[in-house]
């Protein structure tokens, strides 16, 4: 059984205060809730983390080791969350844009240089071919985007209105 983050966080607070009642107050939980969390943690690990007395608690050798590693675990978790949230908004990775050659002459220079300069982690590979072939590549997932002349109707394609919005957004980058 894997301990919960709240159990680990609770233990870290107990280790900081060396008093279950004070830690419970600081965490906004009841003392029985906090005691149960510590017991669950000790049961999961199979070892006592605290020595309890009327004047408070002391960390065992295992408790000292666990609190040190737990603090590092929570720091790592915070960094993982931050990294994941940063990638949510980032435009990065490699994308393949298929484009009819004559369309490329007039459209790509309008937005591609700005898009790449603003998004340093973005890599674009261009594929030039007939519009029909580019459409097939997009449908078959051989290209991520296609800019074509006289596109055939397909449920996964952008409508001309949506395409105008996308082009406008690219122009303001």
Provide an overview of this structure.
- The chain has 173 residues and is α/β, with parallel strands linked by helices.
- The chain has 2 domains: 5-87, Winged helix-like DNA-binding domain superfamily/Winged helix DNA-binding domain (Arc Repressor Mutant, subunit A, Orthogonal Bundle), CATH 1.10.10.10; 90-172, Periplasmic binding protein-like II (D-Maltodextrin-Binding Protein, domain 2, 3-Layer(aba) Sandwich).
- It has helices at 5-17, 20-27, 31-45, 61-89, 101-118, 131-139, 160-172, and strands spanning 50-53, 56-59, 93-99, 122-128, 145-147.
- Strands 4-3-5 form a 3-stranded parallel sheet, with helices on both faces. A two-stranded antiparallel ribbon has the order 1-2.
- Strand 3, helix 5 and strand 4 (122-128) form a beta-alpha-beta unit.
- Helix 1 (5-17) crosses helix 2.
- The protein is rod-shaped.
- The relative contact order is 0.10.
Sequence-ordered SSE layout with sheet pairings:
Blueprint: H1 5-17, H2 20-27, H3 31-45, E1 50-53, E2 56-59, H4 61-89, E3 93-99, H5 101-118, E4 122-128, H6 131-139, E5 145-147, H7 160-172
